[in-house]
Amino acid sequence: MNTKFETLKADVQEIIDLIAAKNDREANNKLLEVSETLDEMIDFAEEDEEVREISRYQVLLNQLHVKINGEEQVDGDA
Predict the structure, then answer these.
(1) Which domain of life does this protein belong to (predicted)?
(2) What residues of the chain score a pLDDT lower than 50?
(3) CA atoms in the 13 A half-sphere facing the CB of 44
């Protein structure tokens, strides 16, 4: 299990680095790739801890998606 998440961690760091470099197109492409990987992982997750860890990455990817695409979250203050 650890190797899968080490790879995910590196991929997420790559997305963050691309955002920092203002390369939003590549960041978005990488984000989509990692999202697909997470979807596959959740389909085959066998342990609750795996599901929790995958969920954490999904939340992080959602936040990065908002950062890349400049979408405001609706919280009633808009």
Answers:
(1) Bacteria
(2) 76-78
(3) 7
